[in-house]
TrEMBL record:
Upper classification of the organism: Eukaryota, Sar, Stramenopiles, Ochrophyta, Bolidophyceae
Binding positions (chlorophyll a 3): 217
UniProt organism field: Triparma retinervis
Family matches, as InterPro entries: Chloro_AB-bd_pln, Chloroa_b-bind
Chain residues that bind chlorophyll b: 97
Protein name: Chlorophyll a-b binding protein, chloroplastic
Amino acid sequence: FTSKEAPKSSSTQHMKLSLLATLFATAAAFHTPVSTPVRSNSVSVSETKADLRSLAADLNPVVKYYDPWGLSDQEFWGSTNEQSIGWLRHAEIKHGRVAMFAFVGFIVHANQITWPWPMTTSGDPFPKADSAPAAWDAIPEAAKIQILLFVGFLEFWSEANMEKHYMRGGRPGDFPDFNSKYIPGGALNLYDPFGWNKNLPTESKEKRLLAEINNGRLAMIGIMGFCSESQLEGSVPALKGVIPHYSGEVMAPLAAGHGLVHIDGLF
């Protein structure tokens, strides 16, 4: 990470590398051990509270099942308990995937790594910033709108094309592939665009799904730690002096724009 107050030095670089090594080592620790048996119902299409207890034991044999708010007992929007659990499971996996991208993106932008080519037809270079929120503020409004529309398209595609909905017995986390009719070569099949993992053994696939959930949870904690420290120095002691301060509204992604509605109340 970079800091406005202190110039880069070898000790600073060592601190960066040590922090990254610690974070990635912690992430690796969240992977399911090879020797850990995977229960056959860990990714079952039937989502019940019993399934959650079984899944929790596979994900973390130490903590196991932990639901202090009783979310697994809820019935949202008049749906059944099983349907609500399917919704929660899908939401967690989805947010974990986004958080993993965000975690890496924050590190990239904090080190001022950008695309090597212009980001607009007018030839404007990609803006450099000290943090991911500052980089977001610096990009043109048109780029922000394009990003939001693309995310909206992915949401629409997911809900409209899944073979079996996650609230109707489908598998949480499933994202329908883009076939060649719409996207040549399946370029937007982000997990496996070349189809290399289709023939993996079932046990390997299930272990990867468990690892994805654990790493997604860790990434959600990590990105919130980054954002908290960037707003209030010292709120995350391990990151004090490492994360540069961000003076904008981290929870209002369009607040820095001109002519865009301030929507911080929606986040």
